[in-house]
Amino acid sequence: MDYYNIRKIWNPDWFQGNRRHKVYFEGWYFKLVNADKTVVYAVIPGISIGEKPELAYSFIQVINGISGETRFLKYEFDDFSFSRNSFEISISNNIFSNSGLKLNLTESGFGINGEISFRENVPYPVRLLSPGVMGWYRFVPTMECYHGIVSMLHDLQGELIIADKKVDFSGGKGYIEKDWGKSMPLAWIWMQSNHFIRKNLSFSFSVANIPWKKSAFTGFLIILSEGERFYRFTTYTGSRITRLSHEGEQIEIEIQNRHYHLFVCASGATTGNLKAPIHGEMSRTIKESIGAVIKLRLEDRKGNVILEDSGDPAGLEIAGDIGILQSDLIKNKSLREAGS
Questions:
Q1: Which pLDDT tens digit goes with each residue over 44-65?
Q2: Which residues are CB-neighbours of 264 under 8 A, at least 6 positions away?
Q3: Contact in structure between 209 and 325 (CB atoms under 8 Å)
Q4: Is 316 in contact with 191 (CB distance < 8 Å)?
Q5: For the chain, which residues make up each domain, given as ranges?
Q6: Which of 75, 129, 201, 307 is within CB 3.0–4.6 Å of 79 for a Cys-Cys bond?
């Protein structure tokens, strides 16, 4: 008997689809930053299955965090393959796993080739009733989008040939996350960095309005980790976003749970256009910066500062009508209310 469909629930980094889905996407986000932070890239492999499965395809997106240049390389759907025993996927002769990646990307006027290995990964903990960063929300059926964190932080070793120039990523840092389902949320704010003064500090933030049944709800997943210590601020643990201010490319947010109060300020930089899925099709265009700056301050409930730091470079996306998020957070609209 093949237990893959059961095992993959507690291995969110694995391929979650079954290759027979109609209206489905899945994508992994690999961020690569060299040691002196002069080269910043995100590489996004994935699959897209729209209303017509015969038109399904696989893809690899690339964004240059310094210039904002992006590329969307399209492949045959059958060029995609995956392991049934670990996280490893391949698209044509490009290989991605939690231990490294191998790229052979060639397009007119564009090329990235080489191999980078990952070391000292900091995975997000998986437990029986909380299989990843989504917690028990992972068990909720028919949600349009699911989210996973594969590695909050890892060291890089290796080099890539980018536009005929050798770039050494050894001593740099990486990050991996993923999304899967039918569509990305209606609106969201996403940010991430693991380039703080405190070298083991890593931060991942997402707040999104997600369609569910005949309604929608706003939820958030905010994770701050340092070594093996994780500070969690999530909808399903009863945390609250008490302030969300958005002006231009700057976001200010305050979040609290039973023990801590977190202050976040993020400001954008050069952006690039990325494709995002609607009903499985990569037909939506969003803007992402991976050269942004995030400022954090974590306090206990008495106001004592536990840590204060700045992350640079950072990823930042602001997509859709942010007013929806602000309105729902004020009303504290939950998943349960959305389904009622």
A1: 999 999 998 889 999 999 999 9
A2: 191, 205, 251, 252, 253, 254, 255, 294, 295, 296
A3: yes
A4: yes
A5: 24-338
A6: 75
